[in-house]
Structures are given as C-alpha cells and as structure tokens.
Design brief:
With 74 residues, the protein is mostly helical. The chain has one domain. Helix content is 47%, strand content 0%. The protein contains three helices and no strands. One of its GO terms (molecular function) is GTPase activator activity. Keywords: GTPase activation. This is Rho-GAP domain-containing protein. InterPro entries: Rho-GAP, Rho_GTPase_activation_prot, RhoGAP_dom.
C-alpha cells in the first residue's frame, strides 16, 4: 500500500503502550499529516465546501451569536 521507504516498522498493537486512546489517535493524526496528498484531495475541496454549505441547515442548527450567553443567563 505504501512505498517501502516510508514503512519503517510494524507495530504490535497488543503492547500496553497502545492501550491509551490518546496514543492511538495521536499516531493516526501523524499518519494523516504525513500523507503526500490530503485524505480529501485538493481537487475536491471546493466541491465539498459547496455541498456542505447546501446541507448545513440540516446538519447543525445555527444559533445567533448571543444564544449561549442568553441561555446560560437564564
């Protein structure tokens, strides 16, 4: 899957150092950072932003900027 020069070692996920979820997620983030091209290729970036903006009202509710302060005050 990856060129041999990029593969440095095989990991044993049975070792105790991999029990902490933060270690696993940190390794995963490092893997994604070091990919030669992002997980979502640059060519699709604009299309994805347009698609998300079309469906945003269905994905997350939008609240006015003062919503949280008003909510916490009551």
């Amino acid at each position: 899957m990856f060129p041999a020069e990029l593969v440095q070692e095989k990991l044993n996920l049975e070792q105790s150092e991999w029990e902490d979820i933060h270690v696993i997620t940190g390794a995963l983030k490092l893997f994604f950072r070091e990919l030669p091209e992002p997980l979502v290729p640059y060519g699709f970036f604009t299309d994805i932003l347009e698609t998300v903006s079309e469906y945003r009202p269905f994905l997350l509710p939008t609240y006015p900027p003062t919503y949280l302060t008003n909510y916490l005050a009551n």
